[in-house]
Every structure is written in C-alpha cells, then in structure tokens.
Specification:
This protein has 85 residues and is mainly alpha-helical. It is 66% helix and 0% strand. The chain has helices at 7-11, 24-55, 58-65, 69-75, 79-82. The protein starts with 6 loop residues before the first helix and ends with a helix.
C-alpha cells in the first residue's frame, strides 16, 4: 500500500502554504519581528535622549535592547550608513 498523503502537515508549513496565505508559524514570526524592531526603536530613543546624536553608539543601543550589534544590522540593514567611521 502507498503511504497516506501528508496534506495536513504540509498545508500549514510556510514553504508549502498557498500564495497570499499565512500559516500560524509565519504570523507568530512576523509578530516577533515587529516586537524586536519596536524594542530596538525604543532603545534607540532612550540612548539618543540620554547621550545625544553625537554620543550615541550602536553598541549602546544594542546593549539597551539586550541584543548584539549584529542583530541591529540584521533588522536595519541600512544602519551601516548611519554608523560613525
């Protein structure tokens, strides 16, 4: 006999979901991304308020957000253009 089709398992997987639809995992991932981006923005606001633009460093923003600097670059790829030489 052939193995039963796995349509229920593959239908909810993000890679096999129909175009224009979001699986539960994808929606949760998007919410986590949005929350992390907001955490970075809030941390940047606190650091800029405390240290001013000239004194603010990406490492300070990352520390305030409890993230690594590389994570800031991942979420805001254009941040390299904003960093000081």
């Amino acid at each position: 006999m052939n193995a039963p089709a796995r349509s229920l398992e593959t239908a909810s997987h993000p890679a096999t979901a129909a175009p224009g639809t979001r699986s539960h995992e994808t929606e949760r991932g998007a919410e986590e991304i949005d929350a992390t981006r907001q955490r970075i923005l809030d941390s940047a606001a606190r650091v800029l308020s405390r240290d001013g633009f000239a004194g603010a460093k990406l490492s300070d923003i990352a520390a305030e957000a409890h993230l690594k600097v590389a994570t800031l670059y991942y979420y805001y790829r254009r941040a390299r253009r904003w960093s000081k030489p």
